[in-house]
Amino acid sequence: MADKGKKGKAAAATAAAAPPPAAAPPPPPPSSVPKPQDKKDQEPKKKEKSVQPKDEVGTRKGCRRYKWELKDSNKEFWVMGHAEVKILSLGCLIAALVMFTGTTVHPLLTLIITMELSVFCFFFIIYTFAINRYMPFILWPISDLLNDLFAFIFLVGAVVIAVRSRQTMPMHYFIAVILIGVAGLFALIDMCLQRKHFKGKRVRRNALIPPAGKEQKFDKPKEGEKPPENVPEKAPEKAGEKPKDKGKGGKK
């Protein structure tokens, strides 16, 4: 019995000395549990178009740039009055050419009218399809200004030739001459409209000088090495000849 009592006391002592069992960690809150990502979020996002300014080309390229250039060129061409004036000049010249078909006309008249018609059509196509925006190396306002000046001079000369070449003028011939003079007047008006492009602008220096080419790259000597000096080349020795001793004198 005594042994059993001792064993019971020893078991109670070891049980009291043993540390209490660790408590289980509390479950994580539902908000911290990672949710599976949607497939839409995992897919790569498409590149969004960059926001571009309305008054400038910005970084537009390709079709976006051509659309902007086309709208801006036509807006400037029609708002400033160049298109209307050129259309009126074209109409007057075509009507004058039609009026001259039934009568004998000086060949210079038909030559001047067809020449001015082709030049006006050329500038109309250039500005309508914004071709001038892709050729900045040509000063288009100055070229158009010179074209209007020469057109006015040629058309006034055509009126003088038409009046001097005929003593009697039928009605349709007289109307054609008046239409040529009106076309020259519209060219003068267009020349006055071209002056708006030059107000408040200055010509850039070296604007017509082409860009410098790539500089030639020369082989630089490495550090610590001297550049090779100009060593005189030796004349090739002929076969059978002995090298001459420069130190020895002549025969005694």
TrEMBL record:
<feature type="region of interest" description="Disordered">
    <location>
        <begin position="1"/>
        <end position="58"/>
    </location>
</feature>
<feature type="compositionally biased region" description="Pro residues">
    <location>
        <begin position="18"/>
        <end position="33"/>
    </location>
</feature>
<protein>
    <submittedName>
        <fullName>CKLF-like MARVEL transmembrane domain-containing protein 2</fullName>
    </submittedName>
</protein>
<dbReference type="InterPro" id="IPR050578">
    <property type="entry name" value="MARVEL-CKLF_proteins"/>
</dbReference>
<dbReference type="GO" id="GO:0016020">
    <property type="term" value="C:membrane"/>
</dbReference>
<feature type="compositionally biased region" description="Basic and acidic residues">
    <location>
        <begin position="214"/>
        <end position="252"/>
    </location>
</feature>
<feature type="transmembrane region" description="Helical">
    <location>
        <begin position="85"/>
        <end position="102"/>
    </location>
</feature>
<feature type="domain" description="MARVEL">
    <location>
        <begin position="77"/>
        <end position="199"/>
    </location>
</feature>
<feature type="transmembrane region" description="Helical">
    <location>
        <begin position="137"/>
        <end position="161"/>
    </location>
</feature>
<keyword id="KW-1133">Transmembrane helix</keyword>
<keyword id="KW-0812">Transmembrane</keyword>
<feature type="transmembrane region" description="Helical">
    <location>
        <begin position="108"/>
        <end position="130"/>
    </location>
</feature>
<keyword id="KW-0472">Membrane</keyword>
<dbReference type="Pfam" id="PF01284">
    <property type="entry name" value="MARVEL"/>
</dbReference>
<feature type="compositionally biased region" description="Basic and acidic residues">
    <location>
        <begin position="36"/>
        <end position="58"/>
    </location>
</feature>
<dbReference type="InterPro" id="IPR008253">
    <property type="entry name" value="Marvel"/>
</dbReference>
<feature type="transmembrane region" description="Helical">
    <location>
        <begin position="173"/>
        <end position="193"/>
    </location>
</feature>
<feature type="region of interest" description="Disordered">
    <location>
        <begin position="208"/>
        <end position="252"/>
    </location>
</feature>
